[in-house]
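Case study 2.
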Amino acid sequence: MVTVFEVANIRCGGCAKTITKALKEARFDEVSVDITCEPRKVTVTIRDEVQLALFKATLRSLGYPLVSDERGFAEETVLKAKSFVSCAIGKIN
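Prediction:
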């Protein structure tokens, strides 16, 4: 099922490139990242709950949690730092 998620910390095409690459490597289909709206949106095909958990974990590992995810100040700071690194990597690659 194609699903759209609102994702935090996405700022640019570098972020989008990193997210797209990571999700395709994790074998997600039809990945797209919309950076033209706020909050930013990631569209992906999710088949089941296991794949949904993998999707969320993959994004969080890159520093891009879902907008709806609860996070404290310390965790938010760490996720933002991770997203800056992921963004830079996306710009370089």
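Residues 2-92 form a domain with the Alpha-Beta Plaits fold (CATH 3.30.70.100).
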